[in-house]
Amino acid sequence: MRLATSLAALSGALILSAGLAGSARAEAVCSHDLRVLAQPRDGLTLLEKYKDEFKKLAGASFDIDYLNENDRRAKSRADASTVGKYNVYYIDEANVALFASSKWVAPLLDYYPKEYDYADFDPGRQKVATYEGKVYFAPLTGGGDLLVYRKDLLDKAGMKPPTTLDEFIADVKKLHDPDHGVYGIALRGQRGSGANVWRWMPYFRGFGGQWFDGNTPAFDSDAAVKATQVYLDLFKYSPPGTKTGSWDESTGAFLSGEVAMLIESTPLAGEAIDPKVSKVVGKVGYAPPPSPLTGGGYAHGLAIGAKANKDEASKKCAGLFIAWATSKENEKRRLDADQFGELNRSSVMTSDEFNQKFGADLGKALAETAKVTAVNFWQDPEWPNLGDHWGIELEELIAGTRTDIKGSLDELRDYAKQLVANRKS
Amino acid sequence: MARNVSKTIGRGVVAIAALLVIIPLFWTLLSAFKNRVDIVTPTPMLFFTPTLDNVLYVLERESVRAGLINSIIVSGCSVLIGAIFGLPCAYAVARYPMRVADDIQFFVLSLRFLPPVAIAIPLIVIWLDVGLYDSRIALIVTYSLLTLSTTIWLAIPAFKRVPQEIEEAAFVDGYGPYAIFFLIALPAAAKSLIGAIVFSFVLVWNEFLIALMLTTSDAKTLPIVASEMTQLGRDVPWGILNASVILLSLPPLLFLGVLSSFLSSALKTRKQG
Amino acid sequence: MKIRTKLPIVFTAPTMAALAVLAFVPTIDAINIALQNRDLSNPDSLYVGFANFRALIDDPRFLNSVSVSVAWEILTVAATMLVAVPLAILLFETTPPAVRNGLCVLFIVPALLPRVSAAFVWRFAFHPLFGLAVYPLRLITGQPIDLLANPHTAMFTVAIVDVWQWGLLFAVIVVKLLETLPRQPFEAAKLDHARTWEIYAYIAIPMLQAPLISLVFVKMVESLRAFDLIYVMTRGGPGIATETLDMYAFSQGFIESGRISYASSMAVLMMAATTIAFTVLWRWARRWRET
User: Fold this and answer.
1) How sure is the predictor about A18, in pLDDT bands with cuts at 50, 70 and 90?
2) For labeling, which of A146, A264, A356, B125 is most exposed (least CB within 10 Å)?
């Protein structure tokens, strides 16, 4: 049954793109090359190999400028808020509210050709891409959190995967054995609303913390103090390099076999079973994050720049590019290239091919973790400001140049009050 | 005997300093031709199968090509402006007794004290308001401040080193003041002047902060493009980074000979000057 | 050569006018912007008087960045001179002229490199897992060591790169200066059985006092431009351990928020402080040299 639907979907996509390619010769949708600002993704690198295909389809090509995640956020904001030279922005859960409310990006579905079937994307990611009822980006990646652990190490110690945070912390301490090259956990220490703050938030929210109560900051609470304390304590068991590192450093340490367990975003599950990057293939198990931690739901994707695409025609061109880049056909290519973290469409993620490649275990864990996946951050255009500010304080706490947790949170509260006050005026 | 021992130790220290220059650069060069697996090893590898992939990747990237073109145009134009307007000014200050000569020298030098951020931040706003933000013209104009002040500062002593007698002889032969500048002083000081101009080129080519703040996409110069590459987080492509650093560093190194002889001659004649 | 000519005016006036415009328009505008509440994304703004400056005084990160900048300035100027002068003496004493000239060319290379390149070369060398510079430490301790992530070592590590560029260049300059010195005092001292270090400490260095002070001055100015190094190597981290004033101003204006007026108020303070400090130093140095 599944095979039949996915086959149908695929052949549909193929016929569709063939048809579009044919009609493109009659009238080109794009009159100039598109400029894209993005962060490095395997899926995008793969996409660049098919530039000619897009050229045939749309009549123009595209160039992608890559920046790392923090820089991409900063630069896209600086560019969009001033000259706005990029036709397509890579935006994410953290700044979709800012970009949409500032009208730096145009509503996507007005320019996303129906044939490309936006409704096929994972519903969780569609929700993240929506701001005030309108969809702004087409997902390139997304998901929640998974507890990823080394089956072999847990078996050796006679342990079961932890289901509560207390068990998890106790197990981290037991498995921590740096003399034999194994660290208990890996965390993110690098500043940033999408870096250290991102990994801290599940504790904060899991302990019942709230960002705001109406317009009043509410994060200055016991939950935040306790979350920070737990997070800092766990850093004792995290490998060197992670204190100023982010996703790369922590997952890199895990994939090279130095880490027993960690809670990270779902794409790690795919990398862990890819022999090209992982030394722990076959030794890895997955579970939902231990309670009461909430999973950090997120999605990244492509959006239409409003300033660079002044007229309808160029918005259509950008929309076509986004549709093509996130099409079923291109997702299929990513699946063929084992790019687990780059898959977003329900039709692809429920296909038999997907199950064959990544195993039933992973599918089950993904389904279970979806239940605890939540929006951990403050859904507001000012979130990047607040999150990044907290990220720096948190980095200082982790580095040890700052020790007063409550005082740091008080400082952040004052900053938040300022943000809210500025907005009202 | 003791003297020999200390001489050997001294030579050892000098040799270590030399190695500290050579080894990191050599390593970077080597890494530009390595595959990622040969870089990400706990034990550094000296022998490996070289690959051209990194270099080709860098050369084929649209952003690198655009950055290279921007860098050449921006540095070229601003250096040219610096030379055309800076050299005559320096000559006048060096040769003609002016009450303001000292003030001019101090003003030109004081431009070097200005923190680049202090200029860059207001310039963002100015160029945005004029609609020239992220354009080559904005960068050229901004950099002209740099090239003008450097060229003047370095060219004044160069003109002073030209023996006054040559110019006086030309005057006796009936040359006018402008002819003396173009036909006598410029050629006589040419060697040092080229050094000064090259120096201002290197300064502008290497400039980072102002370019970072005044460009977002169209006018990005090579240092910005290279730094963006070195900051790519995900699965850091180390080989590519090393290759881009090599490409960025080559142009200033081409002038190594010119600048080192400029330095020597500037310092040698110090005593007589 | 006394000739009546308009050449001085023709040659200097346009250039100086252009320079004045290029220098004063931004600096005056910096003050203007610092008195507003302008945001990068929003061209509408109000004049808020000295609110930005008052906010700076209460901003612990600003105060931190001032002390980081001062520490950086002292550290790099001192280290550069302490590397340059002894290295120059060793070069002058122990190497034959041909070798010395070759080494001088080599020692200029780091200074010619774009700072972005130099910073990257060393960040790569200090990488905790596969950096060449920390490889020996890794062998001895068996532990990866991350010098750039430790708040106690990060600034020293970045300073190494600065000294690598400037200390070696200055060593070359000092060698060339030593070569210009007359030989007689040295010969006389040698006849008196003075030790080598005594010759330098009591004869050579005092003779070179004026140019050495100029070099210190140049390095002080150049140390203010550490942004490129810090941007590539640490981004001001870990935490804010290496966040200098220009780095903080940049973060406020660009990375964390678009508070361009706030950033500008920092830039204005920085400009005022450096202009006053260097004017005083310059006058002092010149008077000192003339006496």
Assistant:
1) very low
2) A356
Residue C97 near chain B (CB below 8 Å): no
Question: Among residues 109-168 of chain C, which lie with CB inside 8 Å of chain B?
Answer: 109-110, 112-117, 120-125, 129-130, 132-133, 135, 138, 164, 168
ipTM of the complex: 0.87
Cβ pair B264:C109 closer than 8 A: no
The string of pLDDT tens digits covering residues A313-328 is 999 999 999 999 999 9
Cα–Cα distance for residue pair C276/C274, rounded to 1 Å? 5
CB-based contact C274 B115, cutoff 8 Å: yes
Cα-flanking dihedrals φ and ψ of residue A386, to 5°?
A: -65, -45
Q: pTM (2 decimals)?
A: 0.83
* Higher pLDDT pick, B148 / B5: B148
Can you tell me the distance from the alpha carbon of C10 to that of A229, in angstroms, rounded to the nearest whole number?
A: 70
pLDDT number for residue A19: 45
Task: Check whether B1 has a pLDDT greater than 60.
Answer: no
Q: Which residues of C touch A395 (CB under 8 A)?
A: 237-239
Asked if B199 and B259 touch (Cβ cutoff 8 Å), the reply is yes
d(CA A315, CA A305): 8
Alpha carbon distance B1, B30 (integer Å): 42
| Total domains present in chain A | 2
Same domain, A21 and A119: yes
Q: Closest residue of A to B67, CA-based?
A: A65
Q: In a 3-state reduction of DSSP, which class is residue A153? A: helix
Interchain pair A385, C257: CB under 8 A: yes
Q: Domains plus CATH for chain C? A: 44-290 (1.10.3720.10)
Q: How far apart are CA B213 and CA B227, in angstroms?
A: 13
Counting Cα atoms < 13 Å in the Cβ hemisphere of C199 gives 19
Here the tokens at position C45 are 């703004």
> Which structural domain range is residue A75 located in?
2-142+298-360
Give the C-alpha distances (Å, rounded to integers) separating B114 from B107, B109, B118, C26: 11, 10, 7, 11
What type of residue sits at position A381? Answer: P
Closest Cβ opposite residue B217 in set A66, A69, A85: A85
- Rounded-to-integer distance, Cα A138 and Cα A319, Å: 10
Domain boundary among A360, A390, A408: A360
